Amino acid sequence: MRLASPLAIIALWQLAAMTSLLSSRILAGPSEIISTAGRLVASGELINGLVVSFLRVLAGFSIALILGILLALISGLSRLGEAIIDPPIQMLKAMPFLGLLPLFILWFGIGEAPKIGLVAFGAIFPIYLTLHGGIRGIDKKLIELGQTLDLGTFGVIRHIVIPGALPSLLVAVRYGLSVAWLSLVVGEQINASSGIGYISARTRIIFCYLANRPPKCEDSRSDRRDGVPALYPMCL
């Protein structure tokens, strides 16, 4: 039953595309999308882009996960740590972090660092906030019991905090991964020469060029760079 509504939406979408109620220039139908995806997979372009993007997400998300867990542990187990760490995190989380991409390019250059940095910066907030709430939700009596049994700080974390906060950690990973992919696709559309975000941006540029160029206009060699037509101002 849960699949009924998504399948119905896809069927209506395909019907609208087949009857020209929905122009392919606005939104291609499911069959056309599958056909195009098949060609990209056969050429290897989509697979290569996914591999490159996956490695970038893996690097950035790993940084965010490690830092998020450490900050959440310090803030969740110590009042002093919470007073130092939590206010800046709460302040920074309200920032539109995707708009910081130009600053990341300015700070780290045009290589892999700004894309990985943007992924890490975006993903650390849901990881920290969700895990911090999970740690704060652990029964204080269990922590006091661990201290009474002389487990030590690492023993309390290992035997009480980690099992108690594990559900929150799994939720944090899920939220963090969604933000990580969003950050990467945006970053690749502006500052990349590979990846799924780059493929999307390049396709948009080519479509805009073909849709707006004058009729019977032939492209010269000088109008192309790296296989992509020169841009009209309206395509930027």
From TrEMBL:
Topology within the bilayer: Multi-pass membrane protein
Annotated TM spans: 52-74, 94-110, 116-135
Tell me which InterPro entries the record gives. Answer: MetI-like, MetI-like_sf
Q: Which Gene3D superfamilies match?
A: MetI-like
Q: Where is the ABC transmembrane type-1 domain?
A: 50-236
User: Which GO BP terms, alphabetically?
Assistant: transmembrane transport
Q: What is its main location?
A: membrane
Q: Name one GO cellular component term.
A: plasma membrane
Keywords associated with the record? Cell membrane, Membrane, Plasmid, Transmembrane, Transmembrane helix, Transport
Q: Which domain of life is it from?
A: Bacteria
Q: Where in the cell is it found?
A: Cell membrane
Q: Which family does it belong to?
A: Belongs to the binding-protein-dependent transport system permease family.
Name by which UniProt lists this protein: ABC transporter permease subunit
Q: Which organism is it from?
A: Agrobacterium tumefaciens
